[in-house]
Amino acid sequence: MKYRKLGDSNLEVSEISLGSWLTYGVGVEADQTRACLDRAFDLGINFIDTANAYGRGKAETVLGEMLAGRARNSYVLATKVFVPMSDTDKGLSRAQILKQIDGSLQRLRTDYVDLYQCHRYDPETPLEETMEALTDIVRQGKVRYIGFSEWSPKNIEDALALLGVEQFVSSQPQYSLLHRRPEAKVIPLCASNGISQIVWSPLAQGVLSGKYAPGEALPEATRATSDEMGKMMQNWLRPEILETVQKLKPIAHEAGCTMSQFALAWILREPNVASAIVGASRPEQLDENAGASGINVDPELFARAEAIVAGV
Fold first, then answer.
1. What mean pLDDT is reported for the chain?
2. Using CA atoms, how far apart are residues 85 and 7, in angstroms rounded to an integer?
3. pTM, full prediction
4. CB 262 within 8 A of CB 251
5. What is the pLDDT of residues 249-301, one digit of tens each?
6. DSSP per-residue string spanning 215-253
7. 10 Å Cβ neighbour count for 288?
8. pLDDT tens digits, residue range 96-155?
9. Closest Cα to residue 103, out of 133, 64, 135?
10. What gap in Å lies between CA 112 and CA 143, rounded to an integer?
11. 24 catalytically annotated
12. Strands (E), the chain
């Protein structure tokens, strides 16, 4: 496993990180969760990403239980705030940030998180209020660094313009061969301001693994067939997308790697990316995904893949 510096922080994070959206505490049983975490650490993955809203606290609770026996300085822990935890607990107001960080720390069984991320932008709260609250919890020692997810270029610029507040070190966008929107503005803006990308859904929720074939039944025991995990990926299962993805298989074979490894290596070709977040319901999935770290792929193969998926 190789590691990269996270923005203008002193955190070194693994190129492949383990996420918990729709999985731990929600769609994956406790024994499999522990097996996945153990395998992640064995493979050199040191970066764990979660959010207070994943399972409305369930993901943080499970991770807190499973991480309790490990040295706190042996992993980098990230969580998020914004998405509703109840009908009234939501957003990025000062009151919510102060309340939600304490709830997350309690569930995660830790005194601090390494990275605290604004899960989305909150148009109903003045940005100054949000940034001042984030600054306060950093200076209280509850959070080491701050980040955001899916903020627009203007949101980012407005935050960068504020004086006397903590600066963001990370951005968490959706980014993959099938979703390249961050390349236009977000990545260049972040790269010039000490902010790294932590990519979510780098495999388009598993579609870029090539395991979903057009016109065929969904493979059993996959995310697509799960009641808890499959609801969010229907858009990726359109026939034209599945047909296009199948055309990438010969290119991945030529590169000497699996489809998943090829798609992750494509993400990691971007210097501004610090880590690609993968989900796993079985330890062996991590074996394959972690193998993408350090793979050298001929840029011409990446260019051919980009041309194939351009139509979708």
1. 93
2. 29
3. 0.92
4. yes
5. 999 999 999 999 999 999 999 999 999 999 988 999 999 999 999 999 999 99
6. TSPPPTTSGGG-TTTSGGGGGGG-HHHHHHHHTTHHHHH
7. 17
8. 999 999 999 999 999 999 999 999 999 999 999 999 999 999 999 999 999 999 999 999
9. 64
10. 5
11. no
12. 3-5, 12-14, 16-19, 47-49, 76-81, 113-118, 143-149, 168-172, 196-199, 273-278
> Which structure tokens are listed for 175?
């980014």
What would the pLDDT profile of 8-17 be if each residue is shown by its tens digit?
Answer: 999 999 999 9
Q: What are the pLDDT digits (tens) for 132-145?
A: 999 999 999 999 99
Strands 273-278 and 196-199: parallel
Give 26's pLDDT tier (boundaries 50, 70, 90).
Answer: confident
pLDDT on residue 219: 61
239-255 burial, b at 16+ Cβ within 10 Å, e below that, comes to eebbebbeebeebbeeb
Q: What is the DSSP string of 90-108?
A: -SS-HHHHHHHHHHHHHHH
Grouping H, G, I as helix, E, B as strand and the rest as coil, residue 158 is: helix
CATH class of 3-209+270-296: alpha beta
CA end-to-end span of the chain: 32
Spell out the domain ranges in the chain.
3-209+270-296
Label the pairing between strands 76-81 and 47-49. parallel
| Residue 137: C-alpha distances to residues 115, 133, 166 (Å) | 11, 7, 10
Neighbouring-strand partners of residue 18: 48, 278
Residue 191: phi and psi, rounded to 5, are -60, -30
Q: Is 31 helix (H, G, I), strand (E, B) or coil?
A: helix
Percentage above 70 pLDDT, the chain? 94
- Among residues 24, 54, 75, 175, which one is catalytic? 54
Interstrand relation of 12-14 and 3-5 (parallel, antiparallel or unpaired): antiparallel
Question: Per-residue b/e over 207-238, b at no fewer than 16 CB within 10 Å?
Answer: bbbbebeeeeeeeeebbbebeebbeebeebbe
